[in-house]
Amino acid sequence: MLRIHFSAGDLERTQVAERVDPLWEMVFSRLRLTEGNSGLLLQPWLRDVRRNGDRQVIRSGVRLLAVLSPLGPYFPDFLTPPEGADGLTAALDAIRATPRARLRTEFRMLADVSPTPGWTRPLAEGCDGALTELTDALARYHAAVIEPYSAVIDEAIETDRLHRSGAAGSVEGLLHGMWPLMNWRPPVLEVQYACDRDLHLNGRGLRLVPSYFCRRTPVAFADPGLPPTLVYPVHHDWTWQRQLTSGRRQEGSLAALLGTTRSAVLAAVGAGATTTELAQRLGASPSAVSRHTAVLREAGLLTTEREGMSVLHQRTLLGSALLGSN
Predict the structure, then answer these.
(1) In terms of pLDDT, which residue wins out, 221 or 283?
(2) Where are the domains of the chain?
């Protein structure tokens, strides 16, 4: 659990960033590219990257980020500098300007939790050439994986901001509205976290940064001395609702967005169906149906409730709207 402690003046200094941070997006996108299930809502991006992206650049960037930002309790803060709030150029400049003492410290901490290959040694020593090679590689990865999709990402961020700020009316309302990502219990904001820690704002306020590629759990800097920042996943359902209202969808048809089988599962649910009933309607195995309903449920298109020995699947309002718009 991460407990963020607010004191006098912190609420007034708390704000939501107006755009994503390019370095955080690169870190999270690498995870989405390498995990087994990147989530239904990211499938159009994932298919397009794999189909049209520069494979050599992407493979190189993924390998680099896998070493420097492993999935686990820690990765170096220098890789996601606060200057990312001012855009990619400012962030890469900040990485190249990282003090050597800080690099040595953070790489020692990284080595304690994850293997660090020999090629990281010049980075840990702050060699100018190594830092330049790193930032050049990050810039190429960003151009291949993030930049081509900036319009979709910006729309998701804008929609998330509009919903959260419009429903809040105040900073406390905003924090309350972050449930279930986090739990506001004044004066402490509680966040489910990989490790148990406390962060005291001490009048600095908190910067909330929306992320398109972050999933499930918000993330903060490891160093409490850095500007207090919490990166959180946007609510993708709101983007879908906005597209449905305006008559637009991320791809040309429901089958293209969900895949033929999942769109068939969504349609076959009808007014409600158990896993066995869906399997019979679709001529599929119950285990295959369960995998698809799990993905649809995570995307907010289905709900599942247990009834005795069976589970009943029903479409949500969003699932019905998406199906009807097709």
Answers:
(1) 221
(2) 2-233, 251-325
* Residue that the structure tokens 């150029």 belong to: 89
Q: In what order do the strands lie in the sheet with 310-315?
A: 273-274, 310-315, 302-307
Q: Which of these, 20, 16, 31, lies nearest to 212 by C-alpha position?
A: 20
Region of poorest pLDDT, from 18-22, 106-110, 199-203, 245-249: 245-249
| Sequence-separated (6 or more) residues with CB below 8 Å from residue 292 | 261, 262, 265
Return the DSSP state at 53.
S
Taking residues 130-143, what's their average pLDDT? 97
Query: Any idea what the Cα angle at residue 193 is, between residues 197 and 137, rounded to 5°?
Result: 105
Tokens of 25: 């997006």
Helix/strand/coil percent split, the chain, to 5? 55, 15, 30
SS3 at position 136: helix
- What gap in Å lies between CA 206 and CA 135, rounded to an integer? 27
pLDDT in tens, 149-182: 898 888 888 888 877 776 667 888 889 888 888 9
b/e code 122-142 from CB counts within 10 Å (16+ = b): ebbebeeebbeebbebbbbbb
Give the separation between CA 106 and CA 170, rounded to whole angstroms. Answer: 37
Angle at Cα 69 formed by Cα 68 and Cα 72, nearest 5°?
A: 130
Return d(Cα 58, Cα 77) in angstroms, integer: 22
**Mean pLDDT for the chain overall:** 87
Sheet containing 2-5: give its strands across: 182-185, 188-191, 2-5, 197-200
CATH number of 251-325: 1.10.10.10
pTM: 0.77
Tokens representing 317 are 């309002």
Contact in structure between 182 and 191 (CB atoms under 8 Å): yes
